Amino acid sequence: QVEESGGGLVQPGGSLRLSCVASGFTLDHVAIGWFRQAPGKEREGVGCINYDSTYTNYADSVKGRFTISRDNAKNTVYLSMNSLKPEDTAVYFCAGGSSRWCRDARYEYWGQGTQVTVSS
User: What is the pLDDT of residues 46-62, one digit of tens each?
Assistant: First the structure.
Protein backbone atom coordinates (compact mmCIF):
# COMPACT_ATOMS: atom_id res chain seq x y z
CA GLN A 1 0.00 0.00 0.00
CA VAL A 2 1.24 3.47 -0.91
CA GLU A 3 -0.40 6.74 -0.07
CA GLU A 4 0.01 10.16 -1.65
CA SER A 5 -0.31 13.46 0.14
CA GLY A 6 0.50 17.12 -0.33
CA GLY A 7 -2.02 18.09 -2.97
CA GLY A 8 -4.07 21.25 -2.86
CA LEU A 9 -5.02 24.47 -4.56
CA VAL A 10 -2.19 26.63 -5.86
CA GLN A 11 -1.98 29.66 -8.10
CA PRO A 12 -0.32 29.50 -11.51
CA GLY A 13 3.41 29.79 -11.11
CA GLY A 14 3.28 28.31 -7.64
CA SER A 15 4.84 25.18 -6.18
CA LEU A 16 3.79 22.04 -4.37
CA ARG A 17 5.57 18.97 -3.11
CA LEU A 18 3.74 15.66 -3.13
CA SER A 19 4.77 12.72 -0.99
CA CYS A 20 4.34 9.00 -1.57
CA VAL A 21 4.67 6.92 1.58
CA ALA A 22 4.54 3.14 1.86
CA SER A 23 2.91 1.29 4.68
CA GLY A 24 3.63 -2.30 5.56
CA PHE A 25 6.74 -2.58 3.41
CA THR A 26 9.81 -0.62 2.40
CA LEU A 27 10.20 1.30 -0.83
CA ASP A 28 13.98 1.21 -0.87
CA HIS A 29 14.19 -1.65 -3.36
CA VAL A 30 11.69 -0.51 -5.99
CA ALA A 31 11.38 2.05 -8.74
CA ILE A 32 8.52 4.45 -8.15
CA GLY A 33 6.50 6.19 -10.81
CA TRP A 34 4.29 9.23 -10.65
CA PHE A 35 1.19 9.54 -12.81
CA ARG A 36 -1.66 11.98 -13.18
CA GLN A 37 -5.17 11.98 -14.52
CA ALA A 38 -7.08 15.12 -15.44
CA PRO A 39 -10.88 15.17 -15.74
CA GLY A 40 -11.99 13.59 -18.99
CA LYS A 41 -8.47 12.53 -19.92
CA GLU A 42 -6.49 9.33 -19.78
CA ARG A 43 -3.91 8.74 -17.09
CA GLU A 44 -0.45 9.85 -18.14
CA GLY A 45 2.99 9.18 -16.79
CA VAL A 46 4.76 12.08 -15.10
CA GLY A 47 8.07 10.43 -14.31
CA CYS A 48 9.95 7.67 -12.54
CA ILE A 49 12.87 7.22 -10.18
CA ASN A 50 15.11 4.17 -9.75
CA TYR A 51 15.32 2.52 -6.34
CA ASP A 52 18.69 4.13 -5.66
CA SER A 53 17.99 7.58 -7.15
CA THR A 54 20.61 7.08 -9.86
CA TYR A 55 18.14 7.72 -12.64
CA THR A 56 14.97 9.71 -13.20
CA ASN A 57 12.88 10.40 -16.24
CA TYR A 58 10.11 12.88 -16.95
CA ALA A 59 7.33 13.53 -19.41
CA ASP A 60 8.12 16.35 -21.81
CA SER A 61 5.21 18.34 -20.41
CA VAL A 62 6.83 18.60 -16.96
CA LYS A 63 10.55 18.41 -17.77
CA GLY A 64 12.45 21.26 -16.14
CA ARG A 65 9.57 22.04 -13.76
CA PHE A 66 9.04 18.81 -11.82
CA THR A 67 11.60 16.82 -9.85
CA ILE A 68 11.28 13.33 -8.40
CA SER A 69 13.42 12.45 -5.40
CA ARG A 70 13.36 9.89 -2.63
CA ASP A 71 14.45 9.44 0.94
CA ASN A 72 14.63 5.73 1.54
CA ALA A 73 15.35 6.26 5.21
CA LYS A 74 11.90 7.87 5.46
CA ASN A 75 10.33 5.35 3.09
CA THR A 76 9.12 8.28 1.01
CA VAL A 77 9.27 9.42 -2.61
CA TYR A 78 8.62 13.04 -3.50
CA LEU A 79 7.33 14.92 -6.51
CA SER A 80 8.37 18.57 -6.36
CA MET A 81 6.39 20.71 -8.74
CA ASN A 82 7.40 24.25 -9.66
CA SER A 83 6.06 26.81 -12.13
CA LEU A 84 2.69 25.11 -12.02
CA LYS A 85 0.24 25.70 -14.84
CA PRO A 86 -3.54 25.27 -15.01
CA GLU A 87 -2.98 22.29 -17.29
CA ASP A 88 -1.16 20.53 -14.44
CA THR A 89 -4.51 20.23 -12.66
CA ALA A 90 -5.12 16.52 -12.07
CA VAL A 91 -5.22 13.75 -9.54
CA TYR A 92 -1.66 12.61 -8.96
CA PHE A 93 -0.79 9.00 -8.18
CA CYS A 94 2.35 7.15 -7.20
CA ALA A 95 2.87 3.51 -8.06
CA GLY A 96 5.41 0.78 -7.56
CA GLY A 97 6.06 -2.86 -8.28
CA SER A 98 8.80 -5.44 -8.16
CA SER A 99 11.44 -3.75 -10.32
CA ARG A 100 14.34 -1.67 -9.09
CA TRP A 101 14.66 0.11 -12.42
CA CYS A 102 12.46 2.51 -14.34
CA ARG A 103 13.41 0.87 -17.64
CA ASP A 104 11.44 -2.26 -16.79
CA ALA A 105 9.10 -0.96 -14.12
CA ARG A 106 5.80 -2.76 -13.76
CA TYR A 107 3.34 -0.92 -11.60
CA GLU A 108 1.51 -3.40 -9.42
CA TYR A 109 0.25 -1.25 -6.60
CA TRP A 110 -1.17 2.25 -6.67
CA GLY A 111 -2.18 4.89 -4.20
CA GLN A 112 -5.58 6.55 -4.10
CA GLY A 113 -4.24 9.80 -5.47
CA THR A 114 -4.08 13.40 -4.32
CA GLN A 115 -5.80 16.29 -6.06
CA VAL A 116 -3.73 19.16 -7.42
CA THR A 117 -5.62 22.19 -8.67
CA VAL A 118 -3.82 25.09 -10.32
CA SER A 119 -6.08 28.10 -10.56
CA SER A 120 -6.15 31.80 -9.84
Answer: 999 999 999 999 999 99
